[in-house]
Amino acid sequence: MSTFTIFLALIVVVAFLLIVVIMVQNPKGGGLSSSFGGGGTQQLGGVKKTTDFLDKSTWTLATLLLVLILLSNVAINRGSDSIDSKALDADATTTQPLPAALPETQDAAPATSTDESTENK
After folding, report:
1. What is the share, in percent, of the chain residues with pLDDT greater than 70?
2. Which neighbouring-strand residues pair with 31?
3. Is the dihedral angle over the CA atoms 70, 74, 78, 83 positive or is it negative?
4. Collapsing DSSP states into helix, strand and coil, what is residue 25?
5. Helical spans, DSSP H, in 25-86
6. Among residues 15, 26, 38, 63, which one has the fewest Cβ atoms lying within 10 Å of its Cβ?
7. Transmembrane segments in this chain: where (predicted)?
8. What pTM was computed for the model?
């Protein structure tokens, strides 16, 4: 398993977790932060602490996702060539085959401009 594959798997997991954390939040003050613990004054951690946890986890996962994406660029296997594109290589010449010449047919008569309909009248 290559390093890039490991980074790719981590990126997918972190992106999924980030989606879950964002979907749990509600910008109007609802969501998990308002319904966590069942209600009343006996909430586990309280609404404020749940909102702080979701906010911190969102920023942490977003930062981790950005770092993993940048590190995965370093881990890409580029092979032995230092130039990725042949368009950037000045020494590379590409030759395209010329289209084959159409065979001339001698069965076809040359076009004439005689108008037979006017001569027959």
Report:
1. 50
2. 25
3. positive
4. strand
5. 32-35, 46-75
6. 38
7. 7-25, 58-76
8. 0.52
DSSP 78-101: --S-S-S-TTS-SS-----PPPPP
User: How many Cβ atoms from other residues are within 10 Å of residue 102's Cβ?
Assistant: 6
Tokens of residue 19, six digits: 């989606």
Distance CA 55, CA 32 (A): 12
**Residues 29-39, mean pLDDT to the nearest whole number:** 54
Tokens of 46: 């309280």
- For residue 45, give every residue at least 6 positions away whose Cβ sits within 8 Å of its Cβ, in sequence order, or none: 36, 37, 53
Place of tokens 């790719």: 8
The percent of residues above 90 in pLDDT, for the chain, comes to 28
How far apart CA 63 and CA 88 sit, in angstroms, is 34
| CB atoms inside a 10 Å sphere around CB 107 | 4
Structure tokens at 105: 């047919």
Hey, what are 3's tokens?
A: 């390093």
Structure tokens at 44: 């586990």
- Look at residue 107 and give its three-state secondary structure: coil
